[in-house]
# Entry
Amino acid sequence: MGWKDFSACASLLVLAFFLSALTGSYADLAYSVAEETRIATVVGNIVKDMGMDSKTMSARKVRLDTEESGKRYFDINPNTGDLVVSQVVDREALCGSRSSCALNYELVLENPLELHGLVVHILDVNDNAPQFATDEIKLEIRESAGKGTVFLLSEAHDADVGTNAVQRYSLQRNEHFALRVSTNADGIKYGELVLEKELDREQQRDMSLHLTASDGGSPPRSSSVTIHVNVLDANDNVPVFGLPVYKIGLPENSPLGTPVVTVSAADADEGVNGKVTYEFSRISDAAARSFSLDRNTGEVRVAGLIDYEEEAHYEIGIQAKDGLGLASNAKVIVDITDVNDNAPVIVVKSMSNSIPENAPPGTEVAIIHVHDKDAGGNKQVRCSIQETSSFKLIPSIKKYYSIVTSQELDREIASGYNITVTATDEGTPPLSSSMTIHVSVSDVNDNPPVFEEQSYSAYVSENNKPGSSVCSVTARDPDWRQNGTVFYSLLPSEVSGAPVSSFLSINGDTGVIHAVRSFDYEKFRSLKVQVVARDNGSPPLSSNVTVSIFISDENDNSPQILYPAPAGNTFMTEMVPKAALSGSLVSKVIAVDADSGQNAWLSYQIIKSTDPGLFTVGLHSGEIRALRDISESDSMKQNLVISVKDNGQTPLSATCTVSLLISDNLAEVPDLKDVSYEENNSKLTSYLIIALVSVSTFFLTFLILVLAVRFCRRRKPRLLFDGAVAIPSAYFPPNYAEVEGAGTLRSSYNYDTYLTTGSRTSDFKFVTSYNDNTLPADDTMKNCPKGTGDSVAISDNGSRFSTLVICCLL
Ligand SMILES: *[C@@H]1O[C@H](CO)[C@@H](O)[C@H](O)[C@H]1NC(C)=O
Ligand SMILES: *[C@@H]1O[C@H](CO)[C@@H](O)[C@H](O)[C@H]1NC(C)=O
Ligand SMILES: *[C@@H]1O[C@H](CO)[C@@H](O)[C@H](O)[C@H]1NC(C)=O
# Structure
């Protein structure tokens, strides 16, 4: 009911009271009846109340009039005058919430017309229960709401009025809320929830309370409603990790992306308040490089290289935070487990680059150090070398090893070794590494030069050119450089009384042996010389070898006729008996040849004879025999010219004349003297005399001169004799020249001595010249050919003075 309606009603009521006051004298009638009274219920008796009798009333046609048409609710029984309920009255429908409800009627009487007011007051009956507007009251209360917070509840409505309206509210017992009932300005009671104990969404996210509203009727009516309290979340819970410390083992070298651990924190709150994100709160740089964290799932993954050798232990702080920033921390400990990923490392700590080959076994060559960065068994290293024949690996302190020789080395067999050191760890699978150390063996002069042959022999023809090479020797020395450099020399010895160096020389570098002079087979046929090969070490080592040189013959000697003696020397006439028969031996030519072999194989031939048919000479025997019987007619004096020829390549020959006298009696010989010989002889004698006289004169003059000088300069007499004069020290008899061959005086010639060049060890001295007829270089000798005169040689030892040689030749 609106305020306007209400005021209109009020003014009508006031008017009714005013009218009733005016018409009070008409004994206005008022009745009360409870609503909902059944039809035909008598409310009152008008006849009685107006003081009339029933006859009068029926005569006067009593009736009720209402101002407004519509429901009448009441009627008057015309016979009895009773006011009866004609229709059930619902006060709530008629008057709503107005506290008084009355129906106004006019009682009309006719004959005479009279009007009386009649009021029926409708009394309230508790026929309505309190009613809540909704079945359910929904409340949303944040759990953070404080104690004493008031929450207004919607009131209950009861159509009844007065005490039949809502009088009480009651709330189901609970631990959080109390009920406070208040009355508003309209007098309507309403309830309020007062928070007595804080809510916790996490304990109870909603609750239902029954609120009952009761009216004051009798019996009272009530109805209840459910208050549904939904506890709204407040961020009152921190995220809580499942574990305070997560401890994980992780093998090193885990690939990128490998999940390590998932941390998880629970937040009892909901929505944004319970949305947990994760982040590193405390992390080292190394760990930050190695791990990543999914901020939503809390999963820690490998994000970088995990190397046990660099970092074996990580401690990472992780913070979990909810949407509004409440946070808590947990710790992740990652222990990296070792994987055998590091091969052992070999380091050479010291080493000698070369060791002498005579180093005793056990000589230290190198010190190595082996280590492995891994841990545990992966760190245990075994070490070995391959060259076990010559070297040993000896473990030393800690991880040090020394490599020593296990035997003597020989540079000539192996000049260097590559020692491969292998280190293997005990991981699975094992890793190994190796390193090669080069050790060179330095030389020691432990090998003497060795000649390629046990002995050498060479053949050289006589009359060779001086300086020509005869043969060569070679010696090898396997040592290194100067220890293996070989020099050759001749061992000093004597050949036929002369030093061997006057016959042979050797090139110290090449070992080529040269003839120093021309050899003569007829003087010696072979010579032996020791050649020494010496290396350049210190001390040097040497060996020697015998070189035999055989001189081979050349046909350089003409046959020499011994018999008959060459013309002029002897009186040679062979007597042939007149009775000599054919074939009888008459004479024999005897010839020799200094050469040998074919070169000395002589053949005889008559090249001229007085009577060519009379004599013959044996081709090889030289026997002269009669070819036929000698007759009287044959000339008494027979001359044969016989040629003796050797069998050389270019044959040489000599001739002789054999004089034969066919006679039985020496007396018959007419003239046997050879005039020319006599002449020659006397000539020779006279020349000899002249020569002797000249020499004597010269000598005397010389003596006088010396004496004179001595006389003049007395002061130095000794010096003069000491130095200037040399007494002949040797006289070489003429037959000395025999060696050279009878009468085969060849032209002497000088030549420059062949010198071995480049030899530092050449063992013969510088010689200015050789004369073909000279034997030793330091003894000058001259000789005269046999048969042509005497020779006088005056010489001293040749070292300080020139030699005076007087040679007499015819
Ligand atoms: C050692 O190794 C080097 C190269 O690595 C090689 O030239 C040499 O011949 C080797 N020496 C030996 C004795 O094996
Ligand atoms: C030669 O051997 C000696 C030891 O006998 C040694 O000292 C020297 O170094 C060696 N020379 C060379 C070039 O090897
Ligand atoms: C020559 O060698 C032999 C052994 O080969 C040795 O006995 C001799 O002494 C050596 N002679 C010289 C002069 O070195």
The radius of gyration is 85 Å.
